[in-house]
Amino acid sequence: MPNKDVVIKQLGMLPYLKTYQAMHDFTKLRDAQTLDEIWLVEHLPVFTQGKVGKPEHLLTTTDIQVVQTDRGGQITYHGPGQQIMYILFDLKRRKIGIRDVVSYLENSVIQTLQHYDITAYSKSDAPGVYINQQKICSLGLHIKHGCTLHGLALNIDMDLTPFNYINPCGYAGLKMTHMKHYIAQIDRQEINQLLTDNFINQLPNN
């Protein structure tokens, strides 16, 4: 299947649970001919807890909803100004493994930030993307019938305060950052184009 056979959808701002349900509906109904999709979306404020998430990583009670999910990882925050990229891919058909997908996601962010002369890196023991020991991108995936759900969350220009109410991704004291700290002019359309291109370009030609 050629790399170009990926449907990219710009979904705008949506409640988390609506998108969560739509991902699962898409995966349940897809068949061997269904094209893979990338969904670009922002969420209204929400904490999401991974399937093995520990409740003690929510440090204080707030009026922000906490949603239990089936993705990997611990608790994180989603809100306006954060770019979510969900990948709904048939890994069996593309003959790629989950570790490959994690690397593709991390690399797509690292390469995007590099475009803006921001040096970022990944960690083998803590998925995501970091700048100077601060986390700028979280990721979590779920595999169902050989297909991926969920994806990454890149902090672009957002209120980072809610991250103080949790141990982000289960790490006490982990500081979060966003692109606004490093570049003055934010072009969301350009960032989205870079993210998707950088991800798709890594996919093997099967």
What would a concise description of this structure say?
By secondary structure, this protein is an alpha+beta fold. The chain is 24% helix and 31% strand. Substrate binds at residues 71-78, 138-140, 151-153.
Number of domains: 1
Most strands sheet: 7 strands, mixed
Instruction: Quote the CATH topology.
Output: BirA Bifunctional Protein, domain 2
Superfamily at the CATH H level? Bira Bifunctional Protein, Domain 2
* CATH architectural label: 2-Layer Sandwich
Intertermini distance? 6 Å
Strand-pairing-aware structural class? alpha+beta
Reading off the top of the CATH hierarchy, the class is best stated as Alpha Beta
Please state how the strands of the largest beta sheet are arranged side by side.
1-2-6-10-9-8-7
Low-confidence stretches: none
Proportion of strand residues: 25-35%
Q: How many individual helices?
A: 4
Rg for CA atoms: 16 Å
